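Exercise: predict the structure of this protein bound to fe (ii) ion.
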Amino acid sequence: MGTKNWPLWEVFVRSKNGLEHRHCGSLHATDAEMALENARDVYTRRNEGVSIWVVESKNITASNPDNNGELFEPAQDKVYRHPTFYDLPDEVKHM
Amino acid sequence: MSEEQIKNLEAQFEARIARDEKIEPKDWMPEKYRKTHIRQMSQHAHSEVVGMLPEGNWITRAPSLRRKVALLAKIQDEAGHGLYLYSACETLGVSRDELYDQLHSGKAKYSSIFNYPTITWADMGAIGWLVDGAAIINQVPLCNTSYGPYARAMIRVCKEESFHQRQGYEIMIKLAQGTPEQKEMAQDALNRWWWPSLMMLGPTDDVSVHTAQSMKWKLKRKSNDDLRQQFIDQTVPQAELIGLTIPDSDLKWNEEKGSYDFGEIDWDEFWQVVKGHGPCNKERMNARVSAWEEGEWVRDAAMAYAEKQKERKEKQAV
Ligand SMILES: [Fe+2]
Ligand SMILES: [Fe+2]
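Solution:
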């Protein structure tokens, strides 16, 4: 020990075109290129992906679960954002 | 935080788990939950990594290219499993270096099964069939465990494990159908790996220490004895199918229970191996420690190279 640790990277894989990249795990690598190569070896050994993103973990800003109340609860009473909120007669079609 | 507040948080936390909610890395969690998870996940990661050694022993001597690519792919998977689990562990704020250090200093344990030697090719068959088989039984219930990163890692692991077991069993089938010497080799491997595989499912319920708490946190969903019974019941017919004999003279189908009765497990042997007196404990640890130490200059060089590249890029940008 005593040497410099390789930074941590988060890996996102697009499983096929048309789908979004999805977080699938993390790994250590010295730079982005190595992170990509390692991600390919570790996370796409069975055709799990057609595209990979790597992001150094320290560059991700995450919301704090302690603030979940103020962040996400206001959406709960905004039922008017959902189609089911609106009263329409049953006879109406295609809506 | 006052004791009262902590108690409150703990109660809410337990209630979330009881409702089958997942816990994610940044959520508040009791210190004991964090520590227990680091211990279990890192032990699990270490087992995947040390588990590559007994099989690595046979890569260069695999009997055909087909067997060789399969064995290589399996071992590479195990390296991946180690990585998924180390990563999950790191989400709890422990560094990879600390984890390695715990393994190398002997502070952390890994599955004792890997302290047995692989002396014939048939051991590759027995390991895939029995050791990966027992691992699957241990791991499948963990796909539903309460800690999100652990559960996700286990889902990936379990998807990959089934090929491991099938490639092992296929090796056994071929040997069992081969010459008398080959069949004998398969039987001998079964004889040596059977009991250690049963031990892999952990001490019996009456002496197992962590079970109650682990059940609550879904780190464990079935007791060791139940898992062991499940393993025996599914494996015995597989042995019969290929004409091999389970090395247990007390093994008998119990019609009433609907499962097999089996003989006494030598728990002295188990504890001896856990304490470091198995046939290969020293060899395994030496292999890991020297791989780490001898790789240090490579890790340093790679880091230095990356930093240099970065500096050069930044200069050019100016
Ligand atoms: Fe594995
Ligand atoms: Fe495996």
